[in-house]
Amino acid sequence: MLFGFILILVLISFLYKTSIKYKYKVDKILLKTYLIKDVIEYATLTRVLNTLSSLIKSGIPLVDALKITEGIVENEIIKEKLREIIKGVNQGRSFAEMVSETNFVNYVALRMISAGEQSGELDNMLESAAKYYADKFQDIVDNMQALIEPIMLAVIGAMVLFLALGIFLPMWDLASAAKKGM
């Protein structure tokens, strides 16, 4: 069983690294999974917004900064949203409009980005939005124990049930065999 489990893990890892379709499906599932979705989303958005802010501060045009930032994103779903944003900005649409249309960030960060774009302080507002997501990520990490507790209770309960059945089922079989023998 251990060899089979290791083989499955190696196969999953190999497919994730080599097949774009498989990676897309796994990333989609991960972004719908309890607790994992928030960790992935907040960590990625923090990194993306910090990178964009740094690149724009250093004088790189927005479209080029977005293309560079796309390269650091590992999740295919988020990368696809970035591609849509790049496509829209290349067509002359505003950055905030594209971010809103793709649901890239939540309402609070969207308002920051929109205000930064209108005031000409996009780099500072992207940095503020990144800080916002970093704080949300830190909250999740700090509260991880409380969030995992229900899952652990269910797992421990299942293990106790399995152990109890392993002990009591043979005794019940022995008792029924003894009744038949009498």
What would you say this structure looks like, in words?
The chain is mainly alpha-helical. The protein has helices spanning 2-18, 20-30, 36-57, 62-70, 76-90, 95-101, 107-119, 122-142, 144-181. The chain is elongated and about 90 Å long.
Task: Describe this protein with a few key phrases.
single chain; mainly alpha; 0% strand
How many DSSP E strands?
Answer: 0
Determine the mean pLDDT. 90
What spatial form do the alpha-carbon principal axes imply? elongated
Percent in helix: over 70%
Q: Supply Rg.
A: 25 Å
Order of helices and strands: HHHHHHHHH
Helix/sheet category: mainly alpha
Largest sheet: none
Report how far apart the termini are: 41 Å
Summarize the structure.
The chain is mostly helical. 84% of the residues lie in helices and 0% in strands.
List the helices and strands and how they pair.
Layout: H1 2-18, H2 20-30, H3 36-57, H4 62-70, H5 76-90, H6 95-101, H7 107-119, H8 122-142, H9 144-181
Helix pairs in contact: 1-2, 3-4, 3-8, 4-5, 6-7, 7-8
